[in-house]
Specification:
By secondary structure, the chain is mainly α. It contains 3 helices and 2 strands; from the N terminus they run H-H-E-E-H. The protein starts with 5 loop residues before the first helix and ends in a 13-residue tail after the last helix.
Length: 77
């Protein structure tokens, strides 16, 4: 098993940092965004952005992985 690349690790840490480490920056009820308190909007936003970051990390890792030998032959034998 190969170690993940630094880019994939950083992409995986972005949602964690956005939700957990940024609390002092957004811990306010006002202003309202789309009619909801900003802190609820921020957490909901990261619920949507988290899978995007993880998908980008997955694509980064699959592009690094070489195809196994014989993978391009296809067909049943």
């Amino acid at each position: 098993m190969k170690r993940p690349s630094l880019g994939a690790i950083l992409l995986g840490c972005i949602p964690f940092a956005g939700t957990c480490l940024s609390v002092p920056l957004w811990d306010r009820i006002n202003p309202l965004v789309l009619g909801i308190p900003f802190n609820f909007f921020w957490l909901t936003l990261w619920l949507l952005l988290g899978p995007l970051c993880m998908g980008a990390a997955y694509r980064l890792e699959t592009s690094r992985t070489p195809d196994p030998p014989g993978a391009e032959q296809g067909g049943a034998e």
